[in-house]
């Protein structure tokens, strides 16, 4: 009998839609309270997920979705890095 694997779903902090974890970008708060973009999705810490679209990014900034998810203030550099991460994906 073939095993049907459950696809892990996560909610986007921009559009609030549930999507598969693989197609989203993970923003991570490490145990040292650093905010990093976790490309592997496997690092330890509290993660927030966002769709790789400019629309979701702008919504997340506007409604402070990242701050709420990670329970801390987000430095401007993190937003800039995230925006750079999203641009090449949108261009494809």
TrEMBL record:
Residue ranges occupied by any YlxR domain in the UniProt entry: 10-84
Pfam family, one: YlxR
Domain of life: Bacteria
Protein name: YlxR family protein
Origin species: Fusicatenibacter faecihominis
Source species taxonomy: Bacteria, Bacillati, Bacillota, Clostridia, Lachnospirales
């Amino acid at each position: 009998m073939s095993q049907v694997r459950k696809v892990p779903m996560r909610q986007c902090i921009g559009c609030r839609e549930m999507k598969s974890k693989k197609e989203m970008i993970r923003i991570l708060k490490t145990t040292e309270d650093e905010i990093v973009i976790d490309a592997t999705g496997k690092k330890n810490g509290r993660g927030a997920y966002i769709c790789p679209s400019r629309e979701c990014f702008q919504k997340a900034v506007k409604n402070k979705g990242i701050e709420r998810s990670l329970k801390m203030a987000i430095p401007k550099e993190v937003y800039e890095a995230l925006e750079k991460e999203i641009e090449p994906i949108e261009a494809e």
